[in-house]
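Predict the 3D structure for this chain.
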Amino acid sequence: MSLYEIYITYVSWGNGGKDRPVLVFELDNGVASVYSVTSQYTGTGIHEKYYKINDWAEAGLHKQSYVDTSSYFDIPLRFLSNKTSIGRLSFDDKKALLKFLSHEVE
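Done. Predicted structure below.
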């Protein structure tokens, strides 16, 4: 497992959840910090918080997708260790995501 890989894993919210793609952006002490990846791009404030994955097919995704940077969650590595990465961000998308995130902090 390495940074910027995308995995499909169960994501829960409220009373439900489902298998969703997630992007690993940090690994530390047996935990992967991940952002959700979605194809939905409508709603208030979304454009400021969702990074558009330009090379989405290379990342193993089936359609245009976005990294939801509005929040992240931690997953113990043991829950991802038995899964295979579906892809990873391209070099250009990695650079662009880091730039996108740096503008959010300013």
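The domain at 5-105 is CATH 2.30.30.110 (SH3 type barrels.).
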